[in-house]
Amino acid sequence: MKTNKILFLFLLSTILIPSLVFSAMSSTNYYIYADSVDYGGGLATSTSYDLQDSVGGGDSTGISTSTSYEVRAGYQAAVKGVLSMSLSSDNIDIGSLSASGLVFSSSMFVTVDTNSVTGYSLSISNVNGVSLADVSDGAVDGDSGSEEYGLALTGSNRMFSDDRAIVNGLVLVSSSAPVVSDQSTLIFKAVRSNNSGAASYSQLVTITASANL
How far apart are CA 18 and CA 33, in angstroms? Predict the structure, then answer.
């Protein structure tokens, strides 16, 4: 009798602070986050530090708002914005693949908030460990009679609707605009065949959220 196969997934979330978020002015090639009215200053650098300064700016400070705009007055009062990501779990256990030809799965939720005017992307930036054979026909279903392992997605901003191999650089979710509590479901699937040997498998998958350029 074959020993049941056990597959574990451990997921690590990585959050990148966006390099492009709110901008005061923009064009096809440039973003200006904030401007100032002055007569001097600039960027000074050394081995250890960068200093962005201005000379002769107005002395008014504080935040003024209207329906369409927000003015943050004062010395270098620039705020780039925020990007946050949360996972419902950082430990996914598909469990014992107790029968060949049957699909076993486990899910987690990823929630992203950002005020980036260019939106964000969620991707797999690194995969370490050993898994079953990657799915190659778009469906982890056991119909082919071979072992398969992959990832499916749900959510309004998902990048694909079939099952994909879990590989470095795979873009999972993308939005071209700011989002509030944008939730996607990652469904990890596995199926073994009659010819699969008994073993245990585990992976460390790094998921990265970053602002779109």
Answer: 12
The one-character DSSP state at 197 is P
Split into its structural domains, the chain has a count of 2
Q: What is the pLDDT of residues 39-87, one digit of tens each?
A: 677 778 888 777 777 776 655 566 777 877 767 666 655 555 789 999 9
Nearest partner of 113 among 213, 15, 11, 19, judged by Cα: 15
Please give the pLDDT value at position 149. 94
Sign, CA torsion 185/144/8/104? positive
Q: Output the pLDDT for position 37.
A: 66
Same domain, 11 and 57: no
Single-letter code of the amino acid located at 119: G
135: DSSP letter: P
What's the Rg (C-alpha) of the chain?
Answer: 24
Average pLDDT of the segment spanning 156-173? 97
The answer to whether residue 123 sits within a structural domain is yes
Distance CA 132, CA 134 (A): 6
